[in-house]
Design a protein that fits this description.
By secondary structure, the chain is an alpha+beta fold. It is built from eleven helices and ten strands. It starts with a helix and ends with a helix.
């Protein structure tokens, strides 16, 4: 049995035995994610995958797709930890957190790094740090110029004096991957914990990030197809209606596109336009999954509305589409 199969099987076991019994709590607001879910997620070993080569990124993409098919928020929580570690050569122990919704090449350095005596000092605010309320440490983009881009990555402990993690922000989707604003007030940081920011390292995770959208779209398609086969309208299953068949066919094509694009991005992460286009297709497929169910699609009982919310928020992972497209036009 290959490594990818072993990891996917581990994800499925985690989802059945640990995640699904607590899914209502994980997706609730503002309740905390149960400790056993966090422990089970950490035990999957996703943070130990080597993302420096295409094979490792492909392995991670397959695992995140499987995880997102059950809960996009857990996949985003795992990605925040992985992204924080990918930007460092020597990551601290424990769970990390990172602002997944930033395009680092053009990030506004609300958090500034300066020197006070012999040590760098941090001051300012980092917004929408995914996983911050349940992390042991934070990887925060920082700059030396309030009018310039982020140039460094600062690593701080969530329990350090002067670090204040705010309350979870009620986001559109992925509510279980609690994001919070972090305020840093004159925190001294060891020099080894302030490193130059290498945005290319984060771009290498575009394939795994897109796989989250693929997982949401695929699970939405599976439930929509099952519903369409059982729902009778006009004396026949709605799957036999041309409009529904066209919608399901479009969803299937979107899933195939996302999976193919994720593989391509694992090999060549520079294709920003492909990344943006494919994740938008995943969001459209999840929205169509709601439409296939009609009014039932908007009810929490069926899970389609959650997938639609999560897929829409997945469109902002590693920067908005406009930012990524402009980055290719205006280096």
């Amino acid at each position: 049995m290959d490594e990818a199969r072993l990891m996917r099987d581990g994800v499925e076991r985690f989802a059945r035995s640990c995640l699904e019994p607590h899914l209502a709590t994980v997706e609730g607001y503002p309740g905390a994610v149960p400790a056993e879910v966090i422990e089970g997620l950490d035990a999957l070993g996703l943070r130990d995958v080597d993302v420096s080569d295409a094979g490792g990124r492909m392995l991670l993409a397959q695992a995140l797709e499987a995880l997102a098919s059950h809960a996009g928020s857990c996949a985003a929580l795992a990605l925040a930890d992985i992204a924080a570690r990918a930007l460092l050569t020597d990551a601290p122990a424990g769970r990390g957190a990172f602002p997944l919704y930033e395009e680092l090449r053009h990030a506004d350095p609300r958090l500034l790094v300066g020197s006070v005596g012999a040590l760098p000092h941090l001051a300012g605010e980092a917004r929408m740090v995914v996983g911050a309320p349940m992390a042991a440490w934070l990887a925060l983009p920082a700059g030396g110029d309030p009018d310039g881009p982020a140039t460094h990555l600062a690593v701080v402990s969530t329990t350090a004096p002067g670090v204040r993690v705010g309350a979870p922000i009620r986001t559109l989707g992925m509510r279980g991957a609690h994001a919070a604003d972090v305020v840093v007030e004159g925190v001294a940081v060891p020099r080894c914990h302030v490193v130059p920011l290498d945005a290319d390292r984060l771009a290498c995770l575009r394939g795994p990030a897109l796989a989250i959208g693929a997982g949401l779209a695929a699970s939405s398609l599976a439930d929509a197809l099952a519903y369409a086969r059982e729902r009778i309208q006009g004396g026949r299953p709605i799957v036999e209606h041309d409009e529904v068949r066209d919608m399901l066919a479009g969803m299937r094509a979107a899933v195939a596109l996302c999976r193919s694009a994720a593989r391509t991005l694992c090999e060549d992460p520079s294709e920003a336009e492909l990344f943006v286009h494919a994740r938008e297709q995943a969001a459209r497929a999840a929205a169509d999954g709601v439409q296939v169910l009609g009014g039932n699609g908007y009810m929490e009982d069926y899970g389609q509305e959650r997938r639609m919310r999560d897929a829409r928020q997945a469109c902002f992972l590693f920067g908005r589409g406009t930012e990524l497209r402009l980055a290719r036009l205006v280096p």
